[in-house]
Amino acid sequence: MEPQLSHQVTDSVATVVIRHPAKRNAMTTAMWRTLPPLLDTLARDAGVRALVLTGEGGTFCAGADISTLQGSPEEAQALAVAAEEALAAFPKPTVAAVRGHCVGGGAQLAAACDLRLAEEGALFGVTPARLGVVYPASSTRRLVSLVGPATAKYLLFTAELIDAGRALGTGLVDEVLPEGELDKRVAELTRILVSRSQLTQAAAKEFAGGRTDRDAYWTAQARGSGDTAEGVAAFLERRRPRFTWSVSTSG
Questions:
Q1: Rg (the chain; Cα; Å)
Q2: So what family is this one in (predicted)?
Q3: Could you give the count of Cα atoms lying within 13 Å of 144 in the half-sphere of its Cβ?
Q4: Cα separation of 26 and 68, whole Å?
């Protein structure tokens, strides 16, 4: 099978699958380039309310295909950073579903997701020190925001792998599931995500990301959306709310 990113949309959830089984789902140059436009298409799709990123088979992603570093390491890193930033900026909730190795560029992608769920046995590592590569500043800051400076330094200085239990303890992972339970939990979580207010989620994602110049924008969106009135009415009437505000149509 040729290395590729495949995707499908089911019940308002887009699932993007990293497929490169010959190299434990390592990301090629073409795959890095493919991700940002794919995410842009899914962001504009009103039928998509959440996104799951995962790897084919028993591995999430073993990093960047090392052969991509033989030409221009700087170009390869720039492509990886562009893909990471596109994933972090995706305006709807994102979930990394991790099995097996989540290393290097794989950890970079997982960290850019909003939530990370892992199966027992998963291994995580940030490994540029094995190759003499300077980890990007933006990626380093994102890692520090997740796990704190001490753990970020441990991961970056040693390039050692840590197991899912330790990743959970550091905040790199939000939940660890027994073997065979990951897909069920991801499906349950995404059902919850797509049932909630996209307005609340989109605003919270920006605020949590540190953006400070759009307070007035979100106040106006909330005032004009009708979602608050609908949410209150649904609560009082003991029914499921029918939220209508959408990232894809908000302009």
A1: 19
A2: Belongs to the enoyl-CoA hydratase/isomerase family.
A3: 10
A4: 10
Quick one: tokens of 48?
A: 């998509």
Sign of CA dihedral 163, 165, 166, 171: positive
Cβ contacts of 97 within 8 Å, gap of 6 or more? 52, 53, 54, 60, 117, 182, 183, 186
d(CA 21, CA 61): 10
- 10 Å CB burial of residue 182 (0-12, 13-18, 19+) is buried
| pLDDT (tens digit per residue) in 45-83 | 999 999 999 999 999 999 888 776 666 678 888 999 999
CA distance 186 to 190: 6
- Angle value at C-alpha 243, between 241 and 246, nearest 5 degrees: 160
Using a cut of 0.70, tell me whether the model's pTM lies above it.
Answer: yes
Non-local (6+) Cβ contacts of 72 within 8 A are none
186/180 Cα distance (integer angstroms): 12
Percentage of the chain exceeding pLDDT 90: 89
Place of tokens 């993007």: 16
